[in-house]
Amino acid sequence: MTIKTIIWKNNAVVLIDQNALPLAEKYITCKSYKEVIACIKDLTVRGAPAIGVAAAMGAALGALNLPSLSQDKFRQKFLTICDEIAQARPTARNLFWALERMKKVSDETKTNSQRHLVKELIHEARLICSDDIAINRQMGKHGSVLLADGDNILTHCNAGALATAGYGTALGVIRAAHEQGKKLHVYVDETRPVLQGARLTAWELKKEKIPHTLITDNMAGFLMQQGRIDKIIVGADRIAANGDTANKIGTYSLAVLAKEHGIPFYIAAPLSTIDVSLKTGARIPIEERNAGEVTNFKGVRSAPEGTKVYNPAFDITPARLISAIITEKGISRKPFRASITHCTKE
Amino acid sequence: MTIKTIIWKNNAVVLIDQNALPLAEKYITCKSYKEVIACIKDLTVRGAPAIGVAAAMGAALGALNLPSLSQDKFRQKFLTICDEIAQARPTARNLFWALERMKKVSDETKTNSQRHLVKELIHEARLICSDDIAINRQMGKHGSVLLADGDNILTHCNAGALATAGYGTALGVIRAAHEQGKKLHVYVDETRPVLQGARLTAWELKKEKIPHTLITDNMAGFLMQQGRIDKIIVGADRIAANGDTANKIGTYSLAVLAKEHGIPFYIAAPLSTIDVSLKTGARIPIEERNAGEVTNFKGVRSAPEGTKVYNPAFDITPARLISAIITEKGISRKPFRASITHCTKE
Q1: Structure pTM?
Q2: Does A22 touch chain B (CB under 8 A)?
Q3: H-type alpha helices, A42-113
Q4: A237 catalytic, yes or no?
Q5: Complex ipTM over 0.95
Q6: Residue where one domain finishes, among candidates A137, A156, A184
Q7: pLDDT for A187-226, tens place per residue?
Q8: Within a domain: residue B1?
Q9: Looking at residue A96, which CATH number applies to its domain?
């Protein structure tokens, strides 16, 4: 089964509408980079690697739609577009990484033809997209050795095909093990407030016919206490040089609970998620989103009018609580700094 | 401010409809014990002490509505009614405790008059109700010494006036400290799946003008990591003789997180919540509720059709993770067995 999260088609960016899932499977066509920004902001497209691909394609779209300009003016305008896209969301590293790749193409392509440069930018965006799927398959291959036949695996949020260009990071590892014939059962945290687990992960697992059970986030500890979870695997939005990992809010709590119960806790993420400029996770910016996500449940209000809310979208799991980080290069164990430095230098 | 959770009025049981809160403040009048059972089952009335009061009043209502019978037949029918009410929900100890009190009145009242016995039963049910408020105020008085001016307190679910006949257990302690002029700020876990925190605790705190901030359950760990929680206080549905405590699902995870961060973790519950017949929490029956609570919120579906769900309504927090248990008799510290044996014998 192939889920097409994001594609470049007829000089437009076509995204599966993740806000409409699982009730409706519909697609949104962005014809301008501003529409792509809006889709990143409102979570039509979400998941760190998918945001990266969307950003790159958005930048390509911005370039494509520029009028004919002098070469300097064009490159300058393109940088402005990239900077604007970079403001869409603050935490996921892949957004900035993808834009860096696009800016590099703009800076380094030797041509006097705007048309040619735009073509190269579109090519780069599509490459980031196809690379992502290949990377996820590699990650799946490496990570699948960590999962054993009969395992009960807990995952949080959606780190699946929908969070990437396809196949997924954490769910990619589960997919790969499933493809190898391992019998797995997945516990899916619903993942409040945006319910990516209930809405998206359950939808993907249903499509894949991988057995799964939905729980609310606060049930995970009780399951661990009962010995019903063998392994935990999640994605990442940004990983610092020492392995500290920003991921969907609730990840940190799961990691503490995993430690308490002696359960392996794995992160699966492409190298593009790693931010070597940050020594530790302490300075990873944590996005705070609007109160309505918490006071409402898909448009139905739960809390009294005017209730004050704190709504951080991510938290930081310290490296000491992470058993291994799975990337396209293999499985990295503690201390992560050495292998992270090694892999990101290549 | 007085919230009337449950009252006996004109030979009927009047309950605030907790499913309608916070959007509407309306009351439901039960004229038969079967209507009371339905209200306990569908969470119109919930919270261990409130369930106890509702059960007692339901039993009184059942007695009141019996036709004129021989004394033996009446007492036999009354026991059957009590047994039927006891089936309404399995975890909260107070339900069984309240029915035991009612059965004792039926067994031990020396009278030949059915009318007199019914009067005594109604009196006992109303006494259980008024006792509960007095007990909660005692608990508040004892527990408030644990809260300091300026504290940030985390609570889970609703252990407030709505969970009791009035005033509350965990929220009663917060109320008492607030009445003493201590400046407190309360973080409110929304408490999926039924959202008692968002719907009920936020509503009570708003009425009391106690500053509070709503979070999703999976944010609590991140707040603790940031040093933003000074103390955690929750209620209980059943406490075993060693202090192991059944409470709303998610409580166990909070207790593990509290230990990780060195944060005091308090339980506030009346002695009627203690089940000395159970040596440990291992045999406390944990209710599993319907899948719809997890896959839907007020009729809005989040998960794909047919998604399998696990929905335990409670979990067990081992005594080792509990800093103190606050009852109407005072503050009990570890090992709890000694003080529990002492208090429940008196």
Answers
A1: 0.97
A2: yes
A3: 48-64, 71-86, 93-108
A4: yes
A5: yes
A6: A137
A7: 999 999 999 999 999 999 999 999 999 999 999 999 999 9
A8: no
A9: 1.20.120.420
